[in-house]
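Hi Prof. W.,

I finally got the Gliding motility-associated C-terminal domain-containing protein prediction working! I wasn't sure whether to trim anything, so I left the full sequence exactly as given:
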Amino acid sequence: MVRINQFFRQFILCAILLFQVYDSLSQCNQTYAWASWKNFSGTTATGTISINSKVVSVTMAANYTFSSTPTISNFNSFKKYIGYSSIPNSTVPRTTWSIGTGGVTSMCFSEPVTNPVLLITSLGSTILKASLRFSEQYVILYDAGRMTFIDSYSLSGKEGNVIVLFPGIFTCLTIYSETPEYYTNITWGMQVPITPITILDTPKECGSVTLTANGGKSYEWNGGQNTTSAINTVTTTGIYSVTATDQNGCKTIALKNVPTIPKTVLKTTVNKTICQGESYSGYSSSGTYIDSLTSTYGCDSIRTLNLSVLATPTIKLDNNKIICNGQAVELTPSMTSTNLPYTYKWSTNETTPSILAKSAGVYSVTVVNGTCSSVASTSVTVNPPPTILPNETRTCDDNVLVAGGLDSNLSYLWEHAGETTPTITVHEPGTYTVKITNAFNCSAVRTIQITGSCLTNVFAPDSFTPNQDQMNDTFKLFVKNGTQLGLTIYNRWGDVLYSESGATAQWDGKYKGDDCLTGMYGYKLTYKASGSNEVLEHKGTVLLVR
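And this is what came out:
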């Protein structure tokens, strides 16, 4: 087995079953009666568990083939478990969990069982983790290490060892595995009860049976009319359980099947009020109805039904309200009128006929006219305003104003002249306001305060030094609140030495590639003011220094 573990992941699975059908189960004992396995045939393995002269069959079935092993692998990993000495290290089923992936293993019993217990050894290898998923929730009884508990349905291990318990009453349990193992051992058992608890059943009257438990100090039933008494009256068929606690605090569970309820003839009168659109026992109109009935308990009865049908208010809320952030919309239900007063209950806990909705979401209102009620709902969508730059105060050095919208698909409206462009040109100081609207038709307002002069001015240096020292090497002019169109340079006799169009035209002190001499040179700058198409000229002289 040591050599096999070097190449294959394996784990040993032992399941201990705690149950008694029509008998009792104690939670203070750690002694178990274990399954004796006799059949290993194809995809099934069968065994039996004997305790207190009762024999319960255990059948395991899967979508892969079973065999057997004479002992349980890694059996000593549970030496510190309190019930270790009662576990027989004998022949048990051998499984592989699956041929490939998608293994399904079911474990069924010939009678309902309570709180089955599962012992797992060598789950996964030291290198590869193996995982199991159960059809029912489990709790941990004993953790022997190297386990990961994923949630209450799943766990995994790397050579892990654990004992888990499945709380409840079951006939079958299923284990799912996505990873095949070399082999796995499985065996089942059940706990030997300490304090026997018996339940007597006595038919009482139509639709009820009296269950009487004895052997305990206190009791707790899972159903019936007297759930904390030794004597309990039940009115439905099924399996009932009682948890009995003795003077030492040990708990024992006993089960009793109530397959039938005695029958007799009952006469009843029922007064029922419903709302329009509802029905009761198949009737939807006001009136008196007499029916002969056979209940699920087998009791015949004659019922007189006095049925009253009240009008239900018809209400409506307008569909899908759309507002912008910071706005509110009034929600008021429309309804049919009746003589009864209405009361209102909104999903916001307000009780007024109308509410103001400021947040996005679904709003509902319940309208009651005495007894009957109706519900209507609508949704409110809150769209965001456009994202814009903050307000600003600036000088008129650049008289082109940008609206400042940062989103796409925006529209603009400038207050001072009604322009609808994202930029405008201004010619005087003042306050300029633009309304910016996005695709949701939500708006924001931005204000730009312009100070100082907005006149167009030309700034020209008196001299320049084209000596290639990266400082003042060219002659260039600057136009404030306007655009340069071209620059022409003349010598003292009026000959043109340089002429260039465009806003970036500047003279480097050369004529046809040769350096011009130190001296005075004339120039002419053509330009136009912002917002104007008129071509203007600015003339002067500049000193070239070498």
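Residues 198-258 form one domain. Does that look reasonable to you?

Thanks,
D.
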